[in-house]
Amino acid sequence: MSYDLVIIGGGPGGYNCAIRAGQLGLKTAIIESRGKLGGTCLNVGCIPSKALLHASEYYEAAAKTFPSMGVKIEGLSLDHAAFMKQKDDAVEGLTKGVEFLMKKNKVDYVKGFGRIAGKGRVEVESADGAKQTLETKNIVIATGSVVTDLPNVEIDEERIVSSTGALALKQVPKRLVVVGAGVIGLELGSVWRRVGAEVTVVEFLDRITPTVDGEISSAFQRILKKQGMKFELGHKVTGVENARNGLLVSIEPAKGGAARTLEADVVLVAIGRKPFTTNLGLETVGVRFDQRGFIETDHLKTSVDGIYAIGDCTHGPMLAHKAEEEGIAAAQLVAGQWAHVNYDVIPNVIYTKPEVAGVGKTEEELKAEGREYKVGKFQFVANSRARTNHETDGMVKVLEDAATKRVVGVHMVGAGVGEMIGEICVAMEFGAAAEDIARTCHAHPTMSEAIREAAKGVDGWVMQA
Prior knowledge:
The chain contains 13 helices and 22 strands. With 465 residues, it is α/β, with parallel strands linked by helices. The protein has 3 domains: 2-147 and 274-341, 3-Layer(bba) Sandwich (FAD/NAD(P)-binding domain); 160-271, FAD/NAD(P)-binding domain (3-Layer(bba) Sandwich), CATH 3.50.50; 346-458, FAD/NAD-linked reductase, C-terminal dimerisation domain (Enolase-like, domain 1). Strand 13 (246-253) and strand 14 form a beta hairpin.
C-alpha cells in the first residue's frame, strides 16, 4: 500500500493527526501496537484515572460532605468490582469511538509494531509475527512515552506498581507509598486515599509539583495535608523489600542523612515518564535524537525531510492536548497548509480535588527572566458559589507583564479550575490585559467570578474581599 502519510502511534497526537489528515484528503494510515487506539492516555492514563477520581470523589462526598448538607446515607460502602468496571466501561467506549473516527475519515488502521525501514518505508509487525511494508511520502512519529524506572526497584504491577498497575488494584491498600509528588502520583494517591488508604508521598525535591507556580503549589500541599495525605519531602527511595506483612520502603534524605523505613501494602512508582523512541528504525534514515531519547525537531520537522515527530517522544510538556495540537499542525504541514502551535498557551491541570490549573509563566519564571510584572489574587473563600458549595479551598493568581499589559500567566487551585482555565487560554490567545478580563461580565454566582476578581486585583480594585 502507498500512502501520503503514515503515523506511527495511535495516542491522542497520532489519532488527531490522522483525523485531520483524513479531513484534508490525504491517504493516511495509523499504526498502533497496543491493539486499541488511544495510547497511554485513553487506555492506562488520563481517561481511566479520571473515571476513578470522579467515582472516589462521590464516595468521599457521600461520607464527609453530604451530612453537612442534610443528606444522610446509612450503610455506605465501596463495591470495588463496580468501582473498577465503570472505569473499564468508559475506556472501552472511547477506544471504540476513536476506531470509528478512523473509518469515518477514511484512515487505514493497521495493528502492529511500526518501525521505519528506510526512506518512505514503514515496516509493521503484527502480534503473530507477520510483517508488511507500507510505502509513504511522509511519516509522523507519535510513539509517546513510557514509565521511568526507579533504580533498585522492580515493578511487578501487583504490589510495586506504575500508574498502569495503580489503575487496576484488586483491593484498596491499607497503606500506599507513592514515590514522586508530581501529577500522576498525587492524582492516583488521592484516588486511593479517598476510598480508605493511608497515603504517604516521598519526593526527592523539597516541594511538590515542581512545575507549578510556587505559591499555588504550597497552597495545594496544605490542602492535601489537611485531607490526610502525608509527605516525606527532600527524601529518596533507595529500595523496596518484601516482608511477611507487606513491603518495607527504605528512604533517606536527598542531601544525606540517616535512612528510615516505611511500611506499605502497595508502592506506586510515579517519578515521571521518558520518550518511547527505541527500536523505531530512526537510525535507518538518520533521525536525530538527544541523550535522553527525545527526537529533535524544528517546527515539528525532524532532521530528515518528510519525517515529523509530535507529542511525548519530542521535547515539551508531556500532555495529551499538547500532542493533539502538534498532531493537527503536522497534518496541515503535510497538506501544505498553515501550521502553528502556541507553546505559551498550553494549559496544565492536576485533576485532584480540588484541582490545580495553570497556563503561561509562573511567578518564579518571570523573576528568573527579570521581567517586571503585576499580580492579582483572589481566595475562593470569598466567592459566594464556593461558600454555598462547601468548596472554599484555593485561590486564583493572575500575572500581567508590566510593559505590555498582557496576561502572561494564570494559576489556580480550587474546585473545577480545570474547566475554568479555558477562559484564560482564550484571553491569552487574544492578547488580553487583566483589565479586559476584569471588565468582562461573568455570571453570578459562579466560581469563575474568582478569576474576574483576581484580574481586578492586578490594578488594585478587588471588590468582593
